[in-house]
């Protein structure tokens, strides 16, 4: 199973959503998990994970992960060639490196990262940025390219974004 997570922040709470789907080419989700949580920390530039990681870990308590499952986060797993990690890297460590974590970010990150891949989907001139821990980046890149939908953002990831804001 593939589990994709996104969190949207309101004034007094965070809304975290997970869409589960069977295959990279799936058009529809198998299940949706949601949770509203209190915001545990203010936004801190360069430390986004401090705010979002607790939300994802809390929602993960409702999901029976199994060997072979994959997790997608909206953001980065690795940030640079010096080993700095983003939200996905912290999640990978929090889950004891048992599940591959795939970061799909919409915005670029300035520091060079030899593990980062750029993906152009559909007719878009704007790329998505892929970082991965626990799996091969080039293999995952091919899978993300195959995700359902003709646009830059795959269908299920677009739906995930919309649900987190609802």
From TrEMBL:
Report the superkingdom from the record: Bacteria
Keywords assigned by UniProt?
Endonuclease, Hydrolase, Nuclease
> Could you confirm whether the keyword Nuclease appears in this record?
yes
| InterPro entries attached to this UniProt entry | Endonuclease-V
Name the Pfam families for this protein. Endonuclease_5 (PF04493)
Which GO BP terms apply?
A: DNA repair
Q: Please list the GO terms describing molecular function.
A: endonuclease activity
Know the name of this protein? Endonuclease V
Species:
Chryseobacterium indologenes (Flavobacterium indologenes)
């Amino acid at each position: 199973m593939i589990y994709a997570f996104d969190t949207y922040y309101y004034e007094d709470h965070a809304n975290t959503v997970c869409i589960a789907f069977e295959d990279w080419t799936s058009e529809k989700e198998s299940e949706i998990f949601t949770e509203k949580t209190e915001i545990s920390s203010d936004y801190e530039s360069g430390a986004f994970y401090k705010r979002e990681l607790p939300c994802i870990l809390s929602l993960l308590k409702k999901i029976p992960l199994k060997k072979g499952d994959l997790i997608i986060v909206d953001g980065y797993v690795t940030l640079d060639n010096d080993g700095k990690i983003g939200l996905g890297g912290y999640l990978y460590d929090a889950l004891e490196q048992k599940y591959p974590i795939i970061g799909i970010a919409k915005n670029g990150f300035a520091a060079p990262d030899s593990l980062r891949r750029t993906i152009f989907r559909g007719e878009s001139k704007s790329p998505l940025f892929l970082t991965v821990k626990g799996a091969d980046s080039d293999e995952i890149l091919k899978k993300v390219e195959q995700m359902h939908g003709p646009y830059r953002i795959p269908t299920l990831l677009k739906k995930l974004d919309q649900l987190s804001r609802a």
